Amino acid sequence: MNVSQLVPVALAAGALLVVLTSYPYLATAIAYRDRDNGLAYIVFLMGVAVWNGLFAAQVMDPRPMVKGFFFSIATLGAVLAGLGWLLFASTASSTPLLPYRRTVYRVVALVAGLDIALAITNPAHALYWTVPDSSPVSSAFTVIEPAVGYWVHTAFLVALFGAGAVLFGLAWRNETDVRYTAGYAVVGSVTAVAILVSAVFLAGTASIAPLIAGGLTTIGWVQAQQKRYLTLPRPYRWVVDLLH
């Protein structure tokens, strides 16, 4: 297996690993659903799981049409992840209050709903992308020709992850819960950059953005577990030791 074949396999395997780790993360999130931003974390976690799961599913079928369907659902997961991330950041006890919070929530929810609806129905209007008839069957991931909607969608995702990273960055600057706000700010920023770079240079193909977003869910899980470390299953304890 050469490098060009190994990279898609590695990306898909990493995405599946993110999905598999969602179960203990979700169980922890449900336990904390009544505290601070537990529900926002659940939305974020579900979005990241769908984003990674359908991203990896593209390698399962060689037909461009099937890959395009999985790519559309992965887009839905990406929007849910971005929405959940902004809610998570803006409801965290360590971050500053988001100005005009209710108005921002309404606008973001409206745009997210419209984005999801248009992305899922893209085959009917092709406002987001088209799958060329000459797409190579050997390609592991979807090959698309981006349209205007694709770039608007990309800008929306970058704005969501960027805004959340800024909120945690402000908390980091104010030295509020430095250990976790620093991690959130850095990984959130890297996720936003990865989304933009992947959209520009690898439109519709390989991307590390879903995997990096999985790093944000890991930080949240470790933070939630800080008071329950002794009850952690042994396979997961090394993750806490690594991130502390």
TrEMBL record:
Ranges annotated as spanning the membrane: 6-26, 38-57, 69-92, 104-128, 148-170, 182-202
InterPro entries: HisKA_7TM
Protein keywords: Membrane, Transmembrane, Transmembrane helix
Domain Histidine kinase N-terminal 7TM region: 16-207
Record-given protein name: Histidine kinase N-terminal 7TM region domain-containing protein
Organism in which the protein naturally occurs: Natrinema salsiterrestre
Lineage start: Archaea, Methanobacteriati, Methanobacteriota, Stenosarchaea group, Halobacteria
